[in-house]
Amino acid sequence: MPFVLQIFGAVGLVGYLSFQNGQKAVNELGTKLSGKITDNIEQHVQNYIEIPRRWLQLNAATIHSGENLEELSSLERLFWQQLQATDFKAYIYFGSQQGEFIGIEPRQTGETLLKIKDQFTVSDRQIYSLDNQGKRLELINTDSYEPHTRPWYTAAEESGEFIWSIYLDAFQPIFVTTPALPIYDQANTFQGVMAIDLPLTKINDFLKKLQISDSGKAFIIERSGAIVATSTEMPPFVTIDQRQKRLFANEHRDPLIKATAEHLYQNFDNLNQIKVVTQPNFEIEGAGHFLQVTPLHYEGGLDWLIVVVIPESDFMEEINANRNTTIWLCLIALVVATGLGVLTSRWITQPILQLKDAAQALERDLEQGQLEQEDFDEIRVAERFEELGVLARAFNSMKRQLQQSFTTLATTNEQLAEQ
Fold first, then answer.
1. Could you tell me the pTM of the whole model?
2. Shared-domain flag, residues 67 and 161
3. Which of 276, 311, 346 is the last residue of a domain?
């Protein structure tokens, strides 16, 4: 019995250690994957926003050094050259203090538009298509546009420095993040604001392509909790009375994003408290989830949080399969070891039991004074161990001596009886 208990204990310990190692591997994998996904997002966002920042600073330096803004054609050439110099395409524009406007917008269709409002267009903004040399082809539309009223202009003018803002595009139902820079001439006189539109859909598209896990999610939020982008197909806004309203993370229709945001609000009184990378893992209805929240700071007041959440169950399928295999192997090993243990114990104890039975029989017959012939038969013990063989031979020798003594005694008794 103690031998079987030892086997049970050893098998149980192996199973427990296997489960613990599997759980440890899951934790390490979840943490490592969360960190890797976060690094990819951070690198992509930085690359996405770095080129516009450089363009704006370069253009501001050019104007500050003496570029004439009285004729918008000079900016038209500058914008066109910048767009041709790189694969990066974005809508770049300038609004002057006098209400003039110039912008070049590459479209997803492949065409490029020039949008201009100056003294020749009166109060309207004219929109032209451009050829591959940047020359105007035809007037395709006019609209009423006042740059002074747009968020990108007012925010930069009020701050007096490079600034980021997120707002709804004026002509299509998408949100854009816009780096904007106030422009000053050589006399440090405010001339207007230059900005570049970066559609948040581009960040959305990148997040959707990430290989997170079967049901993992990644999203970016502002410190207010307002959504910047998510890895889901659901838009980060809702339409109310034909107007788009940005969603907060705890309002999102995706259950995992919503639950993650609520967990963050429960753990932090204010999301501004998150200063460094944090991993406040949590549970949803008893199911563990890996969570990593990473601050993303950038010049101009861009202050976002990158959030990656991965259900533990996404890693557990293989772990559970391995655990089940381990359990079955342990059970098989237990049965085999127990069977071998029983057979081995019988193999060891059988000759000992034979000696014991013979000794008890001889002792009983001696006490009764009635010896049988079988008491003198040799005990045939399988000599599996040298010690048992010696003991058996000694016992047989003792029986032979007893038999000889009893034979001599019987002969003496017969002789005495004849006299």
1. 0.73
2. yes
3. 311
